[in-house]
Design brief:
With 194 residues, the chain is an all-alpha fold. Helix content is 77%, strand content 0%.
Length: 194
C-alpha cells in the first residue's frame, strides 16, 4: 500500500507524463455488474419476453436459475424506470432538436430582415428625391404637393398659434385706423374753424 507524503513537490514533467499515461488508458472490463446494471443489460430481452406473454414471476424464476435473485416487484420497478429514462432521453433530444431548429430559423429571419433593411435604405433616399423632382407643377408655378403640405400644416397647427398673428394684425390695423380718423377729425375741425 502506498502512503501519502505530506508537503511533497512534483515536477511538472512528471505531471505531464502521468497525464499522457492516463489518457492512453482503455476502458477496463467489468467483471461484476450490480443488479440494476444486469437488468439494464438484459432489458430488451426481458421486455420482449413480457410481450410474448411471460409474467414478471416467470422472468424472476428464469433469472433465479442463473443466480440473479430479484423479486417480481423489483424487476417490474427496474424495467419501468428504464423505460421512463428512455422516454426522457428521447424528449430531451427532441427538445434539443427543436431548440436548435428554432435558433437556426431565428438567425435566418434576422439575416433576411437585415438584408431587407439594407435594401430599403437606398431606395427610400431615391424615392424622396424623385418625389421632390417629379411632383406635378400647377400652372401658377407651385406644385400640388406643396399646397397640400401647407394645408396639412395649417390643419395641424394649434388654433391659438394660428389665430394669434391674425388677432395682432387686426389690432394693429384698428389702432392705425383710429389714429387716421382722429387726424381727419382734427383737420376737419381746423378747416371749419378757419
Amino acid at each position: 500500500m502506498i502512503r501519502t507524503k505530506p508537503g511533497q513537490k512534483i515536477a511538472l514533467e512528471k505531471v505531464e507524463a502521468t497525464l499522457a499515461q492516463l489518457e492512453k488508458l482503455e476502458q477496463k472490463a467489468k467483471e461484476d455488474l450490480s443488479l440494476r446494471e444486469s437488468i439494464y443489460f438484459l432489458r430488451e430481452q426481458l421486455q420482449s419476453a413480457l410481450k410474448k406473454g411471460y409474467s414478471y414471476k416467470d422472468l424472476s424464476e428464469i433469472l433465479a436459475q442463473q443466480e440473479i435473485s430479484i423479486s417480481e416487484a423489483t424487476l417490474k420497478q427496474y424495467l419501468r424506470e428504464i423505460e421512463k429514462e428512455k422516454r426522457l432521453r428521447k424528449q430531451r433530444t427532441k427538445s434539443k432538436q427543436v431548440k436548435s431548429a428554432s435558433k437556426i430559423k431565428q438567425t435566418e429571419v434576422k439575416q433576411t430582415d437585415e438584408k431587407n433593411n439594407e435594401n430599403l435604405q437606398p431606395s427610400s433616399v431615391t424615392s424622396t428625391e424623385s418625389l421632390s423632382t417629379e411632383s406635378p407643377q400647377k400652372p401658377d408655378g407651385g406644385s400640388g404637393e406643396d399646397a397640400k403640405q401647407t394645408q396639412d400644416l395649417q390643419s395641424h397647427t394649434p388654433k391659438s398659434e394660428s389665430t394669434q398673428p391674425v388677432a395682432e394684425s387686426t389690432a394693429v390695423n384698428q389702432t392705425k385706423a383710429s389714429k387716421t380718423t382722429k387726424r381727419q377729425t382734427r383737420k376737419t375741425s381746423r378747416s371749419n374753424v378757419n
